[in-house]
Amino acid sequence: MNSLKDILLEIGYSNIIDSGREFRTRPIYRDSGNNTSLCIKKSDGRFVDYSANISGSFEDLIKLSLNLKSIAEAQDWLGNKLPNSGLFIQVEKPLIKQPRILNKQDLSLIIPKHQYWNERGISNETLNTFGGGIMEQGKLKDRYVFPIFNRKKELVGFAGRDVKRNPGPNRPKWKHIGDKSKWKYPLQSNIKVLEELREVIIVESVGDMLALWESGIKNTVVTFGVNISIELLNLFIKLNLKKMTVSFNNDSENNNVGNLAADKAKNKLLKYFDKQQVSVNLPRKNDFGDMSVEEILLWKKTN
């Protein structure tokens, strides 16, 4: 009996990469320079072409790859190769971790004082969009807090920026409550913009997002660090984005952390999208918060 990989090789696929629960390879039914944009699940043979935003059964893949006229022809071709069922292997599904839902009563502890961000060029009009303010008690005391909501408008987290004038050496600049790897921020405010433009600028922090928003650039997502999460990858695939720009901090004059992370993030995206869809365009200064509106708009012209 042939294995799934044997069938793929016979169809004409090559350079098949074993990624544990799935095989990754380059689609042969269209032009592509991406060796991993086609994913075939070992458990049932279903495929997903991330760059072309198409998916289907293993029979659909056979029909597409061999340019057959119908699924019946694909089934006949496959039947001749398999004397009995047993092509697919059983893959144990991981337990799904449910994100923690926070109490919305905590929102009443946020005081709408915006001086910290006003001093950095962010207007109240922009800040009011995100419902943030100073937390004067609790774990996020003396931080400007941004509430994070999911698509069901449930409260799933807080991102708190320290606003103390003289913080101690061990006090982090940002503190997060909730599972930030699950966050898709600020989709609560810009999902329609992303759906319409089908382009996204990927930034490290809320501060970067605010500076871009203040400049009229609203098609952003925040990674809360230098890693693009699985949740964000799934979002980009679902939105069928035509353009993704990685704009992490420009640390060229320091330790190059943001620059190296941007290249790593680009390579991660290229596992799912074609190279013409992904680019790196760093801020001209350390981050967008260090740039004026005029400087940001000049940067935008190069994107």
Description:
The protein is α+β, with helices and mostly antiparallel strands and 303 residues long. It folds into 3 domains: 78 residues; 79 residues, DNA primase DNAg catalytic core, N-terminal domain; 115 residues, 3-Layer(aba) Sandwich (Dna Topoisomerase Vi A Subunit, Chain: A, domain 2), CATH 3.40.1360.10. Helix content is 29%, strand content 18%. The protein is built from 10 helices and 14 strands. The strands form 3 sheets. A 5-stranded antiparallel beta sheet has the order 1-2-3-4-5, with helices on one face. A 5-stranded antiparallel beta sheet has the order 6-7-8-9-10, with no helix packed on it. A hairpin with a 7-residue loop joins strand 7 and strand 8. Helix 2 packs across helix 3.
Q: What's the SSE pattern?
A: HEEEEEHHEHHEEEEHEHEHEHEH
Strand order of the largest sheet: 1-2-3-4-5
**Could you list the spans in which at least 5 consecutive residues all have pLDDT below 50?**
none
Biggest sheet statistics: 5 strands, antiparallel
Overall mean pLDDT: 89
Alpha carbon gap, first and last residue: 51 Å
Counted up, domains total 3
The CATH first-level class of the largest domain comes to: Alpha Beta
CATH topology heading of the largest domain: Dna Topoisomerase Vi A Subunit, Chain: A, domain 2
The helix fraction, in percent, is 25-40%
- What class would the helix/strand composition place it in? alpha+beta
CATH architecture field of the largest domain: 3-Layer(aba) Sandwich
Shape by Cα distribution: elongated
Portion of residues in beta strands equals 15-25%
Number of strands: 14
What gyration radius follows from the Cα positions, in whole Å?
Answer: 23 Å
Total helical elements:
10
